[in-house]
Amino acid sequence: MYQFSNSAIFGAVSLLALTAGSGAIAQVSVDSNVETPIAVAMPIWSELADIVQIDASMEVASFYADRNYAPLFMANDAEVARAVIDALASQHLHALPEWGDRLEPLSRHVAAAVDGYPTAEGEVAFAEAYIALAQARLTGVVVPTRLSDDMYVFPPEISAATALDALAEQAAPVRYLMDLAPDHPDYAPLLALRAELEQVVANGGWGAADVPSGASIRAGERDERVPAIRARLLALGDIEGPRAQRVMPVVTPVATTQPLDDTPLDATSVSNAVQPDPTYMDDATVAALMAFQTRHGLNDDGVIGPKTLAALNTTADERLRQVLVNLERVRWTDWDRNEKHIYVNLADYRMWLRENGEELFTTRTVIGSSRHQTVEFSDTMTHLVVNPTWTVPRSIATEEILPALRDNPNYLNERNMTLIDDGTGVWTPSDTSLINWANFSESFFPWWIRQGPGPGNSLGNVKFMFPNQFAIYLHDTPSRSLFARDARAFSHGCVRVADPTGLAEVLLQPQSSDPLGLFQRHRATGRETTVNLQERPAVHIDYRTVWIDESGQVQYRDDVYGRDALVLNAMQDLGVQTGQPQG
């Protein structure tokens, strides 16, 4: 069937043969006097040329034509093919579909190859399996835009030709397949966390049942739930084992002028006197709680309120599923992390400006409410607008401002707002308080509303523009109190920044020796002014609910928009196992 070179016949050698059914490797002896086809020999792959031209895609056919139909997977005792099988068998470790139906036919092809009868059909089957494997590992399996219009995310595209060329160029293709994963610093730590959480789940989770709800607990207070809270903090690692046993007793000093009584005390009395009150919220527990709150994006006030209690009661299984979703989200990411870019993590309510891996600036943010969710997408920031005017979106004008005008005809005058004729020719009086607003509705509102620059402007003193189809941008705000909250989803979709002056200063540094002065001079005019950026950073608005920070701490965030749940459901529909660990 195949022609082999003279090197196919040689002295006694051993071949690795795949034991039928078990996948185990066995040694097979070959007698030097028997002319047996050897898998490591190179046949003339005339049949491969016929098969790829008929059955394979154009990219696969072109790949093999360029290499004169030399095998990639079936060569050298099918070592690369066996590595593909190993990689497919470990798909669950990456929170990807296991594709078990592919393994049996592929194993038969390998068994034939190591017996000395590699087939062209097997070569093509492994090429197709590897392409699917590489695309899943590097770009994910879920299509974000199919889940929600607010997930305007496009995973990197890896063609069949690119995947095959990458493997063929490797000096160590087996190692390449073993390590196949996204080039992202978060990916390997998340894989390790997934393995750790699977073990926790297998061992029964983090201990006792949920801590009961109730009134907030503060430092120095007593509550029957404190022992359960302390046990949960110990299980989560926020209290170290030995330290957790050293809860300080409550000691109340009492002033006395009585002479010292040195009468020996009963041992039981001494023991009772120094026993700590387990219901007491002591300093060590408060410190551990604050560390826990920091890791979960909560205000580290040391108070056990509803949000902190909900985070404490999140099970290991729920955290595991969160990690699986975020592994998929990392696979969607192919940004250049060395370029200058603004990164907004919606779930963390925070933004960063980074370049070459260095953090140049960070601040808290307020994001869109659950009704007006901020979209995930990427774009490029081009300019700032200092002292911006605000043209009110039609939905806000008709759904929010119009009802307010019916109650208070002076609403616009009090907020430096004017009406702009939308072209219908309806009379626009200079004094809007004279209008009978009962005559207008959401379907009949013949104006735009514009708010002039000033201290009450809803966009504050500056907006940061990256023109996009969603009309989303970063901006200042006069509503400063919201930044103090730990959950900050209150806007109509744009991203408000807590320190807009600091962001403007660092963005203007490349084009001014006095960037802060430049910004303040524009502000002092009181006029709307556009300032183009000489260096235009990319903007990535992301949604990540689990990551490991630079200090090695696991960071968890709430699924504020429910988008993790959408991704998880899609992964399950595609065959990803998201429950108990695999055997």
From TrEMBL:
<dbReference type="GO" id="GO:0071555">
    <property type="term" value="P:cell wall organization"/>
</dbReference>
<dbReference type="InterPro" id="IPR005490">
    <property type="entry name" value="LD_TPept_cat_dom"/>
</dbReference>
<dbReference type="GO" id="GO:0008360">
    <property type="term" value="P:regulation of cell shape"/>
</dbReference>
<keyword id="KW-0961">Cell wall biogenesis/degradation</keyword>
<keyword id="KW-0133">Cell shape</keyword>
<feature type="compositionally biased region" description="Polar residues">
    <location>
        <begin position="257"/>
        <end position="274"/>
    </location>
</feature>
<dbReference type="GO" id="GO:0004180">
    <property type="term" value="F:carboxypeptidase activity"/>
</dbReference>
<feature type="region of interest" description="Disordered">
    <location>
        <begin position="257"/>
        <end position="276"/>
    </location>
</feature>
<dbReference type="InterPro" id="IPR036365">
    <property type="entry name" value="PGBD-like_sf"/>
</dbReference>
<comment type="similarity">
    <text>Belongs to the YkuD family.</text>
</comment>
<dbReference type="Pfam" id="PF03734">
    <property type="entry name" value="YkuD"/>
</dbReference>
<dbReference type="InterPro" id="IPR038063">
    <property type="entry name" value="Transpep_catalytic_dom"/>
</dbReference>
<feature type="active site" description="Nucleophile">
    <location>
        <position position="494"/>
    </location>
</feature>
<feature type="active site" description="Proton donor/acceptor">
    <location>
        <position position="475"/>
    </location>
</feature>
<keyword id="KW-0573">Peptidoglycan synthesis</keyword>
<keyword id="KW-0808">Transferase</keyword>
<dbReference type="InterPro" id="IPR045380">
    <property type="entry name" value="LD_TPept_scaffold_dom"/>
</dbReference>
<keyword id="KW-0732">Signal</keyword>
<dbReference type="InterPro" id="IPR052905">
    <property type="entry name" value="LD-transpeptidase_YkuD-like"/>
</dbReference>
<feature type="domain" description="L,D-TPase catalytic">
    <location>
        <begin position="340"/>
        <end position="519"/>
    </location>
</feature>
<dbReference type="Pfam" id="PF01471">
    <property type="entry name" value="PG_binding_1"/>
</dbReference>
<comment type="pathway">
    <text>Cell wall biogenesis; peptidoglycan biosynthesis.</text>
</comment>
<dbReference type="Pfam" id="PF20142">
    <property type="entry name" value="Scaffold"/>
</dbReference>
<protein>
    <submittedName>
        <fullName>Murein L,D-transpeptidase YcbB/YkuD</fullName>
    </submittedName>
</protein>
<dbReference type="GO" id="GO:0009252">
    <property type="term" value="P:peptidoglycan biosynthetic process"/>
</dbReference>
<dbReference type="InterPro" id="IPR036366">
    <property type="entry name" value="PGBDSf"/>
</dbReference>
<feature type="signal peptide">
    <location>
        <begin position="1"/>
        <end position="26"/>
    </location>
</feature>
<dbReference type="GO" id="GO:0016740">
    <property type="term" value="F:transferase activity"/>
</dbReference>
<dbReference type="InterPro" id="IPR002477">
    <property type="entry name" value="Peptidoglycan-bd-like"/>
</dbReference>
